[in-house]
Structure formats: C-alpha cells, structure tokens
Design goal:
mainly alpha; 281 residues
Length: 281
C-alpha cells in the first residue's frame, strides 16, 4: 500500500534531519541533567526528613512533582519537535518542486497526506516512548519511585503531539513553510496560555477566565489532553496536597476530551486531504 510506503520514507527522512538530531542530542542532555537533579532532590529530602525526625511532606508527593516536571519537559520537547519536523511536510516540497516527481505516478494525493501523517506520528511516538521510559527509569533507580498509570499518560502525550501534527499538516497545505511555522507556534502558545488562564480562573472562582480556557481547549485541545496526562500519572495524595500547578492540574478534563481530540485529529487530517486535492502545485 502506497500510504505505508510514504509513511516509512517519511519516518526515515525525519530522523535524518539535523534539527531532529539536535533535538535528540538536547533530549539526551536533558535526561542526564534530570537524573542529576533528581538525585540532589532525593538526597536533600532524605537529609531534611532525618533532621526533622519525620516527613513534613510525604516523599511520594515530592517524587511525583519531579516526575511531573520531567514529563512536562518531554511533552514540550515533543511538541516543538512535531512542529519543526512537519512544518514543511507539503509546503516545502511544493516550494522545492519535489512533488512534481511524485504526483504524476499512480498515487492519490490523500495517500501522500495520510502517509506523511502516519510517518511523522510514528517518529514522535517513538521519541516520546523513549523519553518517558528514560524519565521512568530515572525515577525508579534514583528516586525509588514508580508513578501510577505511566503507560496511559504516555499514550495521552502521544495524542497531544498528534493534535499538533494534524494542525501542522493542515497548515502546510495552506501556507508557506515559514508562515505555517509562525501560525502553529502561535496556536500552541495560545493553548498553553489558555490552560493557565483556566487554572487561575478556577482558583479565583472567575467564570470568565474559566470560559476563556474552555474555548481555547476547544479550538486547540493539546493542553487539555496534557492536563489529563499529568493527572493520571500523579498519585491521589499528590493531587490533593499540591492542587493546581503550572505543570499539571487537580481538576482534569472528562474522558470526552480524549474522544474529542481523536475526532479533532481525524477531521483536520481529512480537511488537509481535501485542501491538498484542490491545491495547484
């Protein structure tokens, strides 16, 4: 099937790009620094608790915060990697004339979109899986702590990148590479800001701010899915004690948010196919 062939080619090409390689190197550096920081926090907590002859805050909560910080960074890096990798998926090939050698062949345009989307998604899924595994191993070996429902959280993080990928693919069929990058980064920033506004509104009991956050999560649901991911990887005790924070939430969205996000991705990918089908290259 041509779609799977394009997906495999896209997967290989994505890892060959210098930008992606740079992100991978920086990610490895992050894991090293994260392990070092986790070790320092763990030792300081143990010394503090021993000095006080009791724990002022359960170690499970403190370790959970460190894991959440690590996963938040992984989610952010994955989002950046997704946008940069796919920003020119269609636009760059149109600008460079690469598609002229492909389109005349017995290959439908929708297969190009579907293949590229699956290829990039597979690459991002592999990256997130590797990074989450790294954070988990550090948490277990350095902090002697295993976060709950980590696989479910990882799958939700992959869905976050799938949302950004579907937006980037649609933008690539409409805008130039540069314009697409600017637009998607603005939308990504809007989603993160909207999530913070909603949390602040919830804490202040401000309905207007909460409404703004909800509208933002409908337009770009990436942050709401991250909130759900951050919630499922925290123990109940940590959620109750720490409450809302910049890296997660104590009031996660409903399960409907996941179904909405999946339909959201499907609609954007189908729209990308329809737009690309009518675009003059």
């Amino acid at each position: 099937m041509m779609t799977l062939l394009i997906a495999r080619i896209t997967f290989r090409e994505a890892f060959r790009r210098r930008l992606v390689l740079a992100v991978l190197i920086l990610s490895a550096v992050f894991l090293g620094l994260y392990a070092f920081g986790f070790k320092i926090v763990h030792d300081d907590v143990v010394r503090f608790n021993d000095a006080r002859q009791g724990r002022t805050l359960p170690y499970e909560v403190q370790a959970s915060i460190m894991v959440l910080l690590g996963l938040y960074t992984v989610n952010f890096l994955a989002g950046i990697m997704t946008i940069f990798a796919a920003v020119g998926a269609i636009a760059r090939e149109i600008e460079e004339g690469t598609l002229h050698a492909i389109i005349p062949k017995p290959l439908a345009r929708w297969e190009i979109i579907a293949g590229k989307y699956l290829g990039f998604l597979a690459m991002i899924a592999a990256y997130i899986t590797a990074m989450v595994t790294g954070v988990l191993l550090i948490s277990i070996t350095v902090g002697a702590y295993t976060p709950p429902r980590i696989v479910e959280g990882m799958l939700l993080m992959i869905l976050v990148s799938g949302i950004l990928l579907s937006l980037t693919m649609l933008g690539s069929t409409i805008f130039s590479t540069m314009a697409n990058g600017v637009v998607i980064f603005m939308l990504y920033g809007m989603a993160v800001t909207g999530g913070l506004v909603e949390q602040i509104g919830t804490a202040l009991n401000n309905d207007t701010m909460v409404r703004i956050g909800i509208i933002t999560s409908v337009l770009v649901p990436s942050d709401s899915i991250w909130k759900l991911a951050s919630y499922v990887v925290q123990p109940t005790l940590a959620v109750n004690l720490t409450g809302p924070n910049p890296f997660g939430t104590s009031t996660p969205p409903s399960d409907f948010a996941v179904r909405y996000a999946i339909v959201y991705c499907a609609v954007l990918v189908i729209t990308s196919m329809l737009v690309f089908r009518r675009r003059d290259i």
